[in-house]
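Hi U.,

Before I forget, here's the chain from the pilot set. I'm dumping it here mostly so it's searchable later in email.
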Amino acid sequence: MGPTTSAQRRPSIGRSAVNRVHCPSCGAEHDLSEIEPSFDRPDAYFDIPSELRAERSWNADEFCVLWESESTPRRHFVRALLPFQIRGESAQYSWATWVEVTEREFGFIHDHWSDPAETSSSPIPGRLANAFPGMATTMGLAGQLRLTRPRTVPDFYFDAMTDHSLAAEQRDGVLLERVIEWAALVMHP
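Structure:
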């Protein structure tokens, strides 16, 4: 399942000249602050036949647990924002994605979801759980979840040694034109 538009979990692009951009796909003007590439669920969720999803998954807005059968280990996922600094701007732009974590880490995040002290926790290891369109495979890329605020999805940052163009863009920042390309993927799939 490809990215869709959703409301920001946390504002990334503030009200500025960056907001309104001319779309190269349709020629219209779009407000970037209202467009966030977002995956509905981890890709593994869509590998489960639709008629079996209700009995082989547990879903909440920001959490997902999947299993093959009652006797197989469960897989645990947390929604996260993958932030990118826009070069030359104070603004960031984010993809809403899913990250696979261990059962122990999932329990910690779930149990501390509303805890004001959650931001002082150590980064939590995880792996990207979505294939980003038009890019070399992103599934399984390693990184760290950083808890931000109570009841707010965490940020995901790639490990420093991750050799992938998306990781390099996160480390180096992206041009506004790249953000417009990403927004066009959502607006004009």
